[in-house]
């Protein structure tokens, strides 16, 4: 629901260059997974760096979906599915998933 509202706000804003939807989705899912894992490790308290990164990628993926002509509901469902797929791999320390997280963080460290 919140992401649906955010997509309306983003639709009115100028569109900077955003990564293609598949790349945006991958980064949103892995950063959201990292934020959830960090929160669990902190006894339920948010870890702001991971939360901010996940929040940023959530905006980016919704803009990317909008530019691709997708509904916000479809993009939200994709994020949920991808996050559920990626989270166990990140928790297990899968090298490719950890590298993806680092790449997504590096790509938006100035945001």
Topology:
Elements: H1 2-12, H2 21-41, H3 48-67, H4 72-91, H5 95-107
Radius of gyration: 13 Å
Secondary structure: number of strands? 0
Kindly give the count of domains: 1
Helix count from the secondary structure assignment: 5
Give the overall average pLDDT.
85
Question: Cα distance, first to last residue?
Answer: 24 Å
Strand content: under 5%
Describe what you observe in this structure:
The protein has one domain. The protein contains 5 helices and no strands. The protein has helices spanning 2-12, 21-41, 48-67, 72-91, 95-107. The chain is globular and about 40 Å long. The two termini are 24 Å apart.
What descriptors fit this protein?
111 residues; mainly alpha; disordered N terminus
Summarize, please:
The chain has 111 residues and is an all-alpha fold. The chain is 77% helix and 0% strand. The protein has one domain (21-107).
């Amino acid at each position: 629901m919140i992401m649906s509202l955010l997509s309306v706000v983003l639709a009115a804003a100028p569109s900077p260059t955003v990564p293609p939807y598949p790349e945006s989705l991958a980064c949103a899912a892995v950063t959201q997974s990292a934020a959830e894992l960090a929160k669990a490790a902190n006894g339920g308290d948010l870890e702001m760096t991971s939360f901010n990164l996940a929040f940023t990628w959530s905006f980016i993926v919704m803009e990317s979906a909008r530019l691709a002509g997708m509904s916000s509901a479809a993009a939200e469902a994709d994020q949920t599915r991808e996050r559920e797929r990626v989270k166990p791999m990140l928790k297990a320390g899968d090298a490719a998933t950890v590298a993806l997280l680092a790449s997504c963080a590096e790509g938006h460290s100035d945001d």
